[in-house]
Design a protein that fits this description.
The protein has 249 residues and is an alpha+beta fold. The protein is 23% helix and 27% strand. It is built from 5 helices and 13 strands. The strands form 2 sheets. Strands 1, 2, 3, 4, 5, 6, 7, 8, 9, 10 and 11 form an 11-stranded antiparallel sheet that branches. It is globular. The protein starts with a helix and ends with a strand. About 14% of the residues have low confidence.
């Protein structure tokens, strides 16, 4: 009888130990979920291709990275966000601007086609257009920029996209949709530090040319000079066309 009771208590103790091990394993698995979620929040590469130029080249004037690839390659948004601009620019060509909850604005330029419109909400990895060579582009590629807080014509808030995408050298292949990795990648879920707030200068606005417009009438309407309009829109002539999009400060 005593042996039976002894074996019974031993069985109970073993069952409790096994149960605690199981719960411990489940707890460890749950504890790993926040880290997995952080990984999913990191930026992904916006397109398949090869890095053809990096940030800060051309005497510091190149404020993005270039990804060369095949014409028509899908271009993906790197993070959830809202489309704030989608239009044709004389310099950027077909271009899309996306504002992200992480207080970054990303720019996708020289597209062959745009697949989104202003105000549209997009998800990380969603195709927003296709790679092309519109605007001032010498070959088929995606010109990608990242800006903190806002995009401005002077690109005051531009930062190196590699800080959010991971390091990549010229000639290195990247794959669209692959999450960023590496110790030097910033966490895009937090607000950037030590970045000045907007200075109060008016944000860049757009004006769509209508029939009867000319540069003089538009300059007068927005209290700027014709020379300034030509400078910020990279115009070599006074000729403008209906439905052409002009940048107005």
């Amino acid at each position: 009888m005593h042996d039976y009771i002894k074996r019974f208590f031993i069985a109970i103790i073993m069952a409790i130990c096994v149960g605690l091990l199981f719960l411990g394993g489940r707890h460890s698995e749950a504890a790993g979920l926040p880290e997995a979620k952080t990984e999913k929040e990191r930026w992904i590469w916006p397109a398949d291709g090869v890095i053809s130029d990096t940030y800060g080249t051309r005497q510091g004037k190149h404020k993005g990275i270039d990804i060369a690839g095949k014409y028509g390659t899908p271009v993906l948004t790197v993070e959830d966000g809202a489309v704030i601009k989608s239009y044709y620019s004389n310099t950027y060509g077909q271009v899309v601007f996306i504002k992200h909850p992480s207080n970054f604005v990303t720019v996708y330029a020289h597209l062959s086609k745009r697949a989104v419109v202003p105000g549209q909400m997009v998800k990380r990895g969603e195709a927003i257009g296709t790679m092309g060579r519109t605007g001032q582009a010498t070959g088929t590629h995606l010109h990608f920029e990242s800006h903190q807080l806002e995009w401005r014509y002077d690109k005051k808030f531009a930062i190196n996209p590699e800080l959010l995408l991971g390091d990549a050298d010229v000639g290195e292949a990247v794959q669209g949709g692959i999450a960023a990795s590496g110790k030097d990648v910033l966490e895009v879920s937090s607000r950037p530090q030590n970045i000045p707030e907007p200075s109060g200068q008016p944000l860049v606005n757009q004006y769509i040319v209508i029939n009867g417009d000319n540069l003089s009438s538009i300059a007068q309407k927005f209290n700027v000079t014709v020379a300034r309009l030509k400078e910020i829109n990279n115009l070599n002539t006074d000729v403008i066309k209906p439905n052409q999009v002009l940048i107005i400060r």
